Amino acid sequence: MIQLNEKTIGWKTTIENPKSDTLVILCHGWRSGPAKIKHLAMFLKKNKFAVYRLNLSTTFGAVSTIVKQTEKQLTEIRFGQDYKKVHFIGHSFGGIITKIILNNNKFANGDKYITLGTPWGGTSLSKKIESKVNFGDDPALFGNGLKLLKIALANRMANPKIKIGLIGGNKPYIDKKSLDNGEEWDGTVPSKSALSLTENVVDRKVVHLNHTELINNTLTGNMILKFFKNGRF
Question: What are the percentages of helix, strand and coil residues in the chain, rounded to 5?
Fold first, then answer.
């Protein structure tokens, strides 16, 4: 069964609260959509940021197509002209997609990049599945998470001035404290994996939230504001 992103069809990508001089670009995760990050978008707008929610077909399709789709959406933003600073936030695999975009595009006035529950070290489930199933050479998001991760980590970001902050969770959805191998996790991504990126990372933080709560909790929102202001959580 093919599952489309929530409210993806007909969603118009626009800059919300465009009069702000600071823009935040949000990238949702796999089998998700811009509606899923509504709480975070509203929080940022309330705190005087302009917000742009990317709309990706991340349930299926080649990564090359998704990247082109993303870059096309971003052409309507006048980087270096309308905004003094541009920040990026990626949730789950949205963080990996954002990294690929940042590898290829310098983005004038790019300043901070935060990932929330992004599996920079992979997940035990993806490793298990991809060791048994060959999803082909073109790393579509449906099954080639590890190939997607490899692409993201293969190159450095085009703008080396962008500072990165990593946030992971350690609260599973069910009453189970850890994965079978003893690692803490947020119910989807191991905490250690979410903190394992090294390039341009200036701070890391684990919070007691599950994978979904990372984008729907005021605690995360306040940490994001602090990182944007001070470069630390």
Answer: 30, 20, 50
In the DSSP assignment, the letter for residue 215 is: G
Q: Mean pLDDT over residues 32-56, rounded?
A: 95
Q: Which of 183, 201, 53 is nearest to 114 (CA)?
A: 201
Mean pLDDT across 171-176:
80
Residue 12 corresponds to which tokens in the numbers above? 């118009």
Q: How far apart are CA 141 and CA 85, in angstroms?
A: 30
Residue type at 203 in one-letter notation: D
Contact 56, 30 (CB under 8 A): no
**CA distances from residue 73 to 5, 99, 103, 168 in whole angstroms, order as listed:** 17, 16, 17, 28
| Close Cβ partners of 201 (under 8 Å, ≥ 6 residues apart) | 164, 165, 166
Cβ neighbours of residue 46 under 8 Å, at least 6 residues apart?
none
- Secondary structure class of 6 (helix, strand, coil): coil
Domain ranges of the chain: 15-230
Residue 134 clears pLDDT 60, i.e. is over it: yes
pLDDT tier at 122, thresholds 50, 70, 90: confident
Fold for domain 15-230? Rossmann fold (3.40.50)
Q: DSSP code of 190? A: B
Task: Enumerate the H helices of 53-144 as residue ranges.
Answer: 63-74, 93-104, 124-130
